[in-house]
Amino acid sequence: MSPSAINPAVTAGRRSRRKATCWFSRVMVVVAAAILFGACALGRGPARSSSVETADDSARWPAAPIVASRVDEFVSPYVAMDDFSGSILIARAGQVILSRGYGFADVERRLAADDRTAYGIGSITKTMTAAGIELLAGQGRLTLSDPVTKYIPGFLHGDSITITHLLEHSSGLKDYYSWPSYATGRFDPISQAAFLAEVQAQPLDFPPGTRSTYSNSGYFVLAAIIERVSGMPYGEFITRNLFRPLRMTDAGDLQDGLPGRGLAKGYDPGFPPKRVQRAASVSRAWLEGSGSVYASALDLYRWLQAIRDDTIIPLGTFGYPYGWGTRTRFGRHLLEQNGRVPIGYASYVALYPREDLNVIVLSNIQSEVTEQMGVGLAAIALGETYEIPRLRPGFSDPPVGDSTLFASYSGRYEIAPGFVLTVRSVAQGILIAGPDGAFLPMDHEGPDRFFFRPLYVPIVFERESGGQINALDWGGEFRAKRLD
């Protein structure tokens, strides 16, 4: 299909609406909003999407050279705007039809990315943690209905929280990105014992099993259970039982002070003219089980093939593919997951089982454009209609700002009681942070208009009749009232 150019603000708006279930829980806006500034991902709890069967249309799939040409054209604007730098792999019907790098694995040294470059994969880790739990269940060493206290004695509320609750985000455990102790201590390592003590000190968001709200904390607890049942560290367990059998040779578990093999340097969006900056040094210890794995595009291709072929554990055994999101797109069933971690990485993978289509997007710039790109890349590979983004006005024709203008936006903006965004002005522009205190820049695009690349969403500041800023509009999804 021929691509069509579009307004990027419209694209971001569509994406923002589609992701609303990830950012804001239908039942607990404040809790899910806290995750917005943490590691958000597509994998959900027990909600399902039905598969829509389609006739075999492989005859109209574009040939590999055409796919490669269209992918280059599609990706080029994202690379030009420094929204994306990384590796892409597309495989269809058992054949890799595109595998290449874009941009740099190391900006300072000008080292190019390729299909063996490794990246932090964020919440795609959860698919592996879930597989580890299912592998142990298949061996009869645990059952999904077991209470947490069976493996972590004395765990508060652990008699009523089961392994299934942890897998499907219905445990009620508060996501650690919303903890005050994470905001103040995220740069320092945290031991497993200290994490488990802190998660128990936080009040439950709801009684276990009554709701579903995304919780990275639950997957940290699952990693702790894997360690107790297997008798080996989490990283060693997934290496022995997943990575080695599947020949995921570039994959590993992130550790403080231990650079992974071939691991790209992580970057955050930055102010012009560089537009990227080295990511913060958040301790990898916080990520265990929920976002701690690094891997290359080739590794994740092998992982998706194992999922398709039920190599490790048949997904149907447990009734739901835990750690994954199930969707229907282009009239086709798929499994997908994305990831973003505050150490400069973002990722997206999708498996269309019936078409045997695998789409992998890995980036060493912390920007959730990877999901939007993954959807477009699947459309290209399947011969569906897709859209090429235009360069945003803030990049192609940046407006002139000054310190007085930027200072006028500074303040606190309340999304809902208990959840506040903080905007801070600096010489180059303005920064925004959620409760985790991680301030990241916004691109200035015009009068009162900005674009937040980490979450790939437009932000507009609103003024009252007297000209004072009184609110912030987040991608048309919600309005945050200014507090001061």
Topology:
Layout: E1 4-6, H1 8-18, H2 20-23, H3 29-36, H4 64-80, E2 86-92, E3 95-102, E4 104-106, E5 111-112, E6 118-120, H5 125-138, H6 163-167, H7 180-185, H8 192-201, H9 216-230, H10 234-243, E7 252-253, E8 267-269, E9 276-278, E10 293-296, H11 297-309, E11 325-329, E12 332-341, E13 345-352, E14 357-363, H12 369-382, E15 387-389, H13 393-396, H14 403-407, E16 411-416, E17 419-426, E18 429-433, E19 440-441, E20 443-446, E21 449-452, E22 457-463, E23 469-474, E24 478-482
Parallel strand pairs: 1-15
Antiparallel strand pairs: 2-3, 2-14, 4-5, 6-10, 7-10, 8-9, 11-12, 12-13, 13-14, 16-17, 16-24, 17-18, 18-19, 20-21, 21-22, 22-23, 23-24
Helix pairs in contact: 4-12, 5-9
